[in-house]
Amino acid sequence: MKVGIDSLAYFIPKIHLPIETLAKARNIEPLKLTKGLGLQKMALLDTFQDVVTMAANAAHNLLKDNPNILPKEIAKIYVGTESGIDNSKPIASYTLGLLEQVYGQGTFRNCDAVDHTFACIGAVDAMQNAIDFIKANPTKKAIVIATDYAKYDLASTGEYTQGAGAIALLISTNPRMIAFSSQTGVATESVFDFFKPYRTLEKKLITGKDTNQVWHGIEEGEITLHKDQPVFEGQYSNQCYINRITEAYTHFKELNNRQSEKVYQHWKAILMHLPYCYQGRRTFHEIVLLENPDLIDITAEDAKDQIKAFAKSEKYMELVKDKIAPSEIASGNVGNIYTGSIFLGLLSTLTHFAETSENIENSKLGFVAYGSGSKSKVFEGEVQSEWLQGMPSKSIFTAIEESEAIDFDTYIALHKKERKSPLKQACNEFILDRIEQEIPHLIGARYYKFIQ
Ligand SMILES: CC(=O)CC(=O)SCCNC(=O)CCNC(=O)[C@H](O)C(C)(C)COP(=O)(O)OP(=O)(O)OC[C@H]1O[C@@H](n2cnc3c(N)ncnc32)[C@H](O)[C@@H]1OP(=O)(O)O
User: Fold this and answer.
1) DSSP 3-state assignment of 270?
2) Where is the Hydroxymethylglutaryl-coenzyme A synthase N-terminal domain (predicted)?
3) Are residues 285 and 411 in the same domain?
4) Which of 100, 336, 390, 443 is most buried per CB count within 10 Å?
5) ipTM beyond cut 0.95
6) 271 and 387 housed in the same domain
7) From the alpha carbon of 370, which atom of ligand 1 is closest?
């Protein structure tokens, strides 16, 4: 039985900071960001948007593109995120409530809703759990949503890799787009490469405020109580990424009895977690070298230089152009969307092949997922004959073109949550209306509405 992605939709904010504006303000050589890391724009949330509005808008777009699907057919709404806004009420529950504002109260009453969190790989976990469920219940359908706001400290090395967006997938049997069949290679190690610890402080340190009344973005003097931004070590996180993806790739080959094959050569396109545009191309050469040990003498004193030279070689660049570059187009213009990045890469790749009218039916796609903390999963999907019919009605490339640039001061005001008035008018989308601050038993409750 074939199970996988039947349809795919997305939501990205309508504003961005051009990367050259950031480079200038931070005194960074612009070419490092554009040519070295592949960055062009960072998508940013407007004042009325958050991870819930993005999730609900992506799911709503998915349902609008598939008017034949009724809410009662959706058995699961599984969300992957690492930007949770509540330690108890999941984004999936908020999203379900928002969809009911449009489809009617109680229309999703028998739908199971839950969040999955494991840094950037949470949406892959959510998708695989949904696939397992559909295999056991072939007449049902599930919606999987990846929603994240990648926000880093100002002037940190992560600042230029920020971004925001959500991807929604319809999972079913006989999918029109991608069928997943092979076993998944996995590699996990508990490390601290990138994480978001709770930083609730001792009550006695916080004058005049009850720590129970702490929610995102609220600061007391110099003490930040709960930050959206991670604690991370950039170069170490890269090393963890490389270690995990090579281990998971090896495991994938073992599980599928494909040790004698250079598996990646069978992949038409490679979809990797892209925490910034060029992370895939700057790491996948390690897998190529794993498959081609004769290319480098790893016992040589200059082994590191040989690896670096291979990563810049014409031969490797051909592979990048052919198999990885299509996934980078959207990433460079949206930025990191954590759990959604690998699926944004998939959408970018499919949009590219749709625009170039390339026949990719029956092609194999290689998925190389990563989540800090840390886990990688490697698996394969096959493009189905009706894949074009599952694509979003509006091209992601058009949405990127339409996004408006903002200036540096506006970016800073948004980052510090000092800006109160919206930059763009909401239209046909869910917005955050208000966060309750007065009624004691509802403090922190977030209220949303749909704007026509
Ligand atoms: C966070 C997640 O989502 C989970 C993960 O995947 S963890 C793995 C990734 N980690 C992160 O994204 C953490 C946040 N990001 C960071 O800390 C940093 O942005 C980073 C570690 C990703 C990059 O660090 P950095 O110090 O800014 O850049 P650096 O690694 O030196 O690379 C700069 C590149 O630009 C190139 N470059 C520099 N100046 C250049 C110029 N003038 N022209 C062209 N290229 C230039 C450099 O040569 C280098 O490329 P190569 O290594 O391929 O040659």
Assistant:
1) strand
2) 2-174
3) yes
4) 336
5) yes
6) yes
7) 6
